Amino acid sequence: MKLFALGSNGSGQLGLGHKLDTSVAKPCDIGKDKYETAEIPIRITAGGNHTLVLLSSGKILRSGSHYGNAASDTSVIWSTVIASKYFDSTSTTEASATFKFCSATWSASVFITIGDHVYTQGLGTRGELGHGSTVTQIDEISDSLDLSCQLPSDTTIVDLASGVHHSVLVLSSGDAYGWGNGRKGQIGEPAEIVWQPRKIADLQFKVVRVICGREFTCLVGDPETGEHMILGADKWMIRSEAPESIHHWMDIGASWGSIFVLDQDGKIVSWGRNDHGQLAPQNLPLIKQIAIGSEHAIALTRKGSVVAWGWGEHGNCGPDKDEHGDVKASWNELVLQASEIQSLVLGVGAGCATSWIWTK
User: Fold this and answer.
1) What is the pTM for the complete model shown?
2) DSSP per-residue letters across 58-115
3) Cβ distance 254 to 213 under 8 Å?
4) φ/ψ (deg, to 5) at 345
5) Contact of 74 with 66, CB cutoff 8 Å
6) Which residues pair with 63 in a beta bridge?
7) 229-259 residues labelled b (16+ CB within 10 A) or e (exposed)
8) How far is CA 14 from CA 19, 30, 36, 44, in A?
9) Neighbouring C-beta atoms of residue 282, cutoff 10 Å
10) Quick count: other Cβ atoms within 10 Å of Cβ 14?
11) Cα 334–337–338 angle (5° rounding)?
């Protein structure tokens, strides 16, 4: 597998070895064979200035600054998240991580192991770390307490998402717990900063997925029932313009102000903020996979091409954009460097004005 990146890179969050933005997909140095590894990305998530890549082995790579500050603690190359004292007993070697989920707020990261231990790292002045009002900075994951002690012991964690300042996880029971900035009601009532994981009350269905925007949370049920609930501010009419149900969804994602639903027919339904062309343009080709960034989207088509649209000021939607840095009412097809043109694209990812493509 080869991983390629483009877009915002002021803190080295693309892991390219420098801090220059790029509008052309460049290969990342991530493996023993420099640009290649046998592992496949399972999830790519990003904060304001840092990136986390969860690989199929359970290892997490990170780059950039997890403090959200481009001037400090930056890494322009990839490093491995290490928390050896928290490794689960199922680890095959001491050097192998065993994570199954990760997510990122603007300046913090959340890590969940295959044993359902929950750890946080970074800055959390609005409850993002989940350890109470007295803990607003955790420098290393090994310094983090396990938040899972505040969750029911007879369940497993089945999903995780973070917005700019809050995080929500979903349990196998269908319940959801959140922490961080909940002043807009994005973690339920009462609407306040939630300093430790709190159960979201009054859910009327079994939740299986969660996505988080800047000031909202969308909880989703089984694709056959189409049930969903949006909590938080109705800015950009994210709640009032939502469909009553979202049956037969295949994937779902959120930007800071929009929601995107990929259905089983390969079509995208989207609503919310659209001042930069964030919503899915008309006449898109049929889509196989979507990845939603802060204010842009990238998608893998069923024919194997990669398209992007929305706010592209940093080159994250490719080199072609309007005078405002946007790709509106249309899309760009992203191409790899000439030597990689024939490579089979396996997946795409998106972050805060960053885009990712991995190939076979």
Assistant:
1) 0.93
2) S-EEEEE-TTS-TTSS--SS-EE---GGG--TT-SSTT---EEEEEE-SSEEEEEETT
3) yes
4) -75, 125
5) no
6) 51
7) bbbbbebbebbeebeeebeebbbbbbbbbbb
8) 8, 11, 16, 11
9) 7
10) 33
11) 115
Cα Rg for the chain, rounded, in angstroms? Answer: 19
CA distance 290 to 125: 31
Averaged over successive runs of 10 residues, the pLDDT of the chain (360 residues) comes to 95 94 92 74 96 93 75 68 46 56 97 94 96 94 87 96 98 98 98 98 97 98 98 98 97 98 98 98 98 98 97 97 96 82 88 96
Q: Which residues contact 146 (CB under 8 A, 6 or more apart)?
A: 86, 117, 118, 119
Helix (H) or strand (E) holding 4: strand 2-7
Burial class of residue 17, CB neighbours in 10 A (0-12, 13-18, 19+) = middle
Is the omega angle on the peptide bond into residue 243 within 30 degrees of 0, that is, cis? no
* φ and ψ at residue 148, rounded to 5 degrees: -65, -15
Q: Identify the three-state secondary structure at position 270.
A: strand
Provide the β-strand partners of residue 259: 254, 271
Q: Are strands 166-171 and 176-181 parallel, antiparallel or unpaired?
A: antiparallel
CB 201 within 8 A of CB 187: no
What is d(CA 83, CA 299) in angstroms, rounded to the nearest whole number?
33
* Gap between the Cα atoms of 232 and 183, Å rounded: 8
Q: How far apart are CA 57 and CA 312, in angstroms?
A: 32
Write down the H helix ranges in the chain: none
Residue pair 211/229 in contact (Cβ under 8 Å)? The answer is: no
